[in-house]
């Protein structure tokens, strides 16, 4: 696990520290305070390579469309890396660094350099990272004159350990199908269906249809007392988000789960059960969870978790992110209860 995180020059952070980190970590704060950027910092240092850059930029649509000399558009998109750097500034010598310390030392550093020792006008992104004991990586990506970066050719490998990122908008059917396929005929398959009963107790079975999972897959559910197969969307957005959350969590064994706006579509009445599921599963599968929320109900649910399941709440820490502050304001399980009872604002 990562026990603390230091971010320098990455996105909105000139220099920022998060300490301590526990099994489950919830980031709260105002809009544009940097909560999602912290998730991406964890993603970068956990992956330790250019895939983290690609994921982050594509997720935010920070891409520029390549054009040929004739002005014709290519189908591929290239990444605009300037937004990864503090102040959106991109020039020679600009750099960012993310460090995570815990069971092992992890760090990744990216610097804008000349593409060669001849100091031509062409620039490159120089990635250096250390993500496992005794192993250091060194990668370079060439920056085009237009300021774009083309990722390495071929499909980027899935990082090991697994680093799953769930956006506020639930994953599409194809992504859910891929995650479901990885869990079929494993001990976690039945647990997915059981987890959905937090919202809809009548759910009996789940299936994902879609040829080869390359086309859009369709998630179907079987409810007790109803013979017809029901599409996931007919049960409401909350069930869809919970399914995406569970699939991303169960498939992240031994790795990391990053969730933006974890409470999306969920009623406050189910949030204690949601937190219980997350903490118990994260313990069992050795997953470290990082999430964000704007919902005070989501934080209050942690206070109720502390009263009902104190041994689980001890695994959770709330971090308030404040713009321009040097570090997060930390609330442990007992402090969350005090804040909730006093109606103190922790968002």
Write the topology of this structure.
Blueprint: E1 2-10, E2 13-18, E3 24-28, H1 35-47, H2 50-59, E4 63-67, E5 73-79, E6 95-102, E7 105-114, E8 123-132, E9 135-143, E10 163-166, H3 173-183, H4 189-196, E11 203-209, E12 218-223, E13 230-231, H5 237-250, E14 256-259, H6 271-285, E15 288-293, H7 296-308, H8 310-313, E16 316-320, E17 329-331, H9 333-341
Parallel strand pairs: 3-15, 3-16, 10-14, 14-15
Antiparallel strand pairs: 1-2, 1-6, 4-5, 6-7, 7-8, 8-9, 11-12, 12-13, 16-17
Helix pairs in contact: 1-2, 3-5, 5-6, 6-7, 7-9
Describe this structure in words.
The protein has helices at 35-47, 50-59, 173-183, 189-196, 237-250, 271-285, 296-308, 310-313, 333-341; strands spanning 2-10, 13-18, 24-28, 63-67, 73-79, 95-102, 105-114, 123-132, 135-143, 163-166, 203-209, 218-223, 230-231, 256-259, 288-293, 316-320, 329-331. By secondary structure, the protein is an alpha+beta fold. Among the domains are: 2-15 and 31-143, no CATH class; 168-240, no CATH class. A 6-stranded antiparallel β-sheet has the order 2-1-6-7-8-9, covered by helices on one side. Strand 12 (218-223) and strand 13 form a beta hairpin. The longest helix is centred in the last third of the chain and has 15 residues, at 271-285. The chain is globular, with a radius of gyration of 21 Å. The two termini are 25 Å apart. The model is unreliable at 68-75 (pLDDT under 50).
């Amino acid at each position: 696990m990562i026990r603390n995180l230091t971010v320098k020059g990455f996105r909105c952070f000139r220099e920022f520290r998060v300490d301590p980190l526990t099994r489950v970590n919830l980031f709260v704060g105002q809009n544009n305070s940097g909560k999602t950027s912290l998730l991406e910092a964890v993603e970068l240092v956990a992956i330790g390579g250019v895939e983290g850059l690609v994921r982050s930029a594509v997720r935010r649509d920070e891409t520029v469309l390549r054009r040929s000399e004739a002005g014709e558009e290519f189908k591929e998109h290239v990444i605009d890396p300037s937004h990864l750097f503090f102040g959106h500034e991109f020039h020679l010598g600009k750099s960012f660094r993310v460090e995570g310390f815990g069971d092992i030392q992890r760090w990744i550093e990216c610097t804008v350099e000349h593409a060669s020792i001849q100091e031509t006008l062409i620039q490159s992104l120089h990635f250096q990272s250390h993500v496992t004991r005794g192993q250091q990586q060194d990668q370079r990506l060439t920056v085009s004159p237009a300021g774009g970066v083309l990722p390495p050719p071929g499909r980027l490998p899935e990082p090991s350990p697994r680093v799953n990122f769930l956006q506020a908008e639930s994953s599409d059917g194809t992504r859910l199908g891929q995650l479901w396929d990885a869990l079929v005929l494993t001990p976690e398959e039945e647990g997915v269906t059981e987890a959905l009963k937090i919202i809809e107790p009548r759910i009996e079975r789940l299936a994902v249809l879609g040829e080869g999972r390359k086309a859009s897959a369709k998630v179907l559910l079987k409810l007790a007392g109803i013979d017809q197969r029901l599409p996931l969307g007919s049960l409401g957005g909350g069930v869809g988000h919970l399914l995406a959350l569970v699939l991303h969590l169960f498939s992240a064994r031994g790795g990391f789960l990053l969730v933006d706006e974890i409470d999306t579509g969920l009623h406050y009445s189910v949030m204690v059960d949601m937190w219980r599921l997350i903490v118990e599963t994260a313990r069992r599968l050795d997953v470290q969870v990082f999430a964000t929320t704007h919902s005070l109900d989501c934080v209050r649910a942690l206070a109720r978790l502390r009263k009902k399941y104190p041994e689980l709440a001890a695994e959770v820490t709330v971090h308030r992110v404040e713009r321009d502050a040097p570090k997060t304001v930390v609330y442990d399980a007992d402090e969350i209860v005090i804040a909730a009872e006093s109606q103190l604002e922790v968002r």
